[in-house]
Design a protein that fits this description.
By secondary structure, the protein is an all-alpha fold. It has 9 helices and no strands.
Length: 153
């Protein structure tokens, strides 16, 4: 099995970043030039695209995780930060209506989970839990909480 066939086999199962393919090719024992040529050929044929992978990650994580968590996943896959920022801007920031509905769903879920009626009257223990909950999902907890408090006024 040559490098191209191996990469096609991998890509038939799921999307991989160029960095992941390069790493897997080295693990399999292919030389650097064969790996680079194979990745270049796959990108020319549009079989492999880091941009498409970022779009897929954003779509699958939207509403569950915030920008920081999704960006961390992309960086772990070897996708450059500037590619992520470009795709994030085109996919998310231009669709503000979807973002507000996702935040509304997150707010409703947090209110149910932590039994919150008023975001101005949260005891410190519950506030810490809520901030951890938001931070774990990649949101800036303080900014989201401040936004929710302003919405209630």
């Amino acid at each position: 099995m040559n490098c191209n066939e191996y990469f096609l086999k991998l890509l038939s199962r799921r999307d991989y970043s160029a960095y992941e393919l390069h790493r897997k090719g080295k693990e399999k024992g292919f030389d650097e030039s064969a790996i680079a040529d194979a990745i270049q050929e796959l990108q020319e044929k549009d079989y492999q695209s880091d941009t498409r992978l970022v779009v897929s990650l954003i779509a699958s994580s939207q509403g569950k995780y915030g920008k920081a968590a999704i960006k961390r996943k992309c960086l772990e896959k070897g996708i450059p930060s500037d590619v992520f920022e470009q795709v994030w801007h085109s996919e998310v920031e231009e669709k503000e209506d979807g973002k507000t509905s996702d935040l509304a769903q997150l707010k409703a879920k947090a209110m149910r989970k932590y039994h919150i009626d008023d975001f101005h009257k949260i005891d410190p223990k519950t506030k810490a839990k809520l901030l951890n909950y938001l931070n774990y999902r990649g949101f800036n907890g303080f900014d989201i909480l401040r936004q929710w408090q302003q919405e209630e006024v």
